[in-house]
Amino acid sequence: LYSAIGFAKLPMIFMVVVNLFVRLLNSRAGLILTYLFLAIFTVWVIVLEIIAIKENYKMSTGNAVLVYFLPYIVLVVLFIIMIIFAGATFISIFSEVLKNVPMQ
């Protein structure tokens, strides 16, 4: 699996050429071009990594996609839970502070 993931990341080497070309352009179009190629190569790498997982573990494409994105999904859910708890904590703290503020 490690070698397959390594080969899947290989297209990102082309970003070196894109960055060199952008440095020569030195304009806003070059910046847009960088982000465009970065998005294209990132999608390409994600697809190759999903194929590597699928072939290595002999699973369906749907399961391979789930295996690939599950850590990110878990992180987002944990982040949302932390935000909810932090919000609840701050609301309780500020409600106590506001109770002690004298009203005119």
Description:
The chain has helices spanning 2-8, 14-25, 28-57, 61-99. It has 104 residues and is mainly α. The protein folds into 2 domains: 1-58; 71-104. The mean pLDDT is 88.
List the helices and strands and how they pair.
Layout lengths: L1 H7 L5 H12 L2 H30 L3 H39 L5
What is the total domain count?
Answer: 2
Radius of gyration: 23 Å
Order of helices and strands: HHHH
Mean pLDDT: 88
How much of the polypeptide forms β-strand, as a percent range?
A: under 5%
Structural class category: mainly alpha
Q: Calculate the terminal CA-CA distance, rounded to whole Å.
A: 69 Å
In brief:
The protein has helices spanning 2-8, 14-25, 28-57, 61-99. By secondary structure, the protein is an all-alpha fold.
Task: Give descriptors for this structure.
flat; single chain; mainly alpha; 2 domains; 104 residues; 4 helices
